[in-house]
Amino acid sequence: RPKDTVDPAKQDGVVHRIPCECGKVYIRETGRPMQDRIKEHDRDIRLARTETSAVSEYAHNTGHKPLWNEVKFIDRDPYYYTHRVKEAIHIRLYTNNINRDSGIENSRSVDAHDQKTQLQESHATADC
To answer: Which residue stretches does the UniProt record annotate as biased composition, category Polar residues (predicted)?
Structure first.
């Protein structure tokens, strides 16, 4: 018998994507249940707290609204560092974002990973 699955919104260590009605997205990781963080973003918007939430800041600066019913769980990792790296990767994949930063500090890990991948690809094509 398969294990019961846990709703991604109730899991911690997730990377999620909040779309905006204008087509832009906000991507962030959270070590807490995703549904709790979404509620906090919504509250920050209602209370005009722009310093604690990039979503709130964007909503107040543009008048645009997040599409709460379309929030997506996009990745998960139980380890803090690796879900931070995954966050940075997803931020780079979704260039039309409203994030204040590119994820993990200066994305050094992602840069190193990109360089390693490029090296592997260049070695593979050189062997052909």
So the answer is: 117-128
Q: How far apart are CA 44 and CA 62, in angstroms?
A: 15
H or E stretch at 3 = none
Burial call 74-105: b when 16+ CB within 10 Å, e when fewer: bbbbeeeeebbbbbbbbbbebeebbbeeebbe
CA distances to 14, 117, 127 from 17, rounded to whole Å, are: 10, 25, 39
Pairing of the two strands 72-76 and 14-19: antiparallel
Tens digit of each residue's pLDDT (9 = 90 or more) over 84-126: 999 999 999 999 999 998 888 644 555 555 545 544 454 454 4
> Looking at residue 47, what DSSP letter applies?
T
The pTM (predicted TM-score) of the whole model is: 0.75
CA torsion 69-95-65-10 (nearest 10°) is 30
DSSP 8-state secondary structure symbol assigned to residue 31: S
Question: How far is 38 from 42, CA to CA, in rounded Å?
Answer: 6
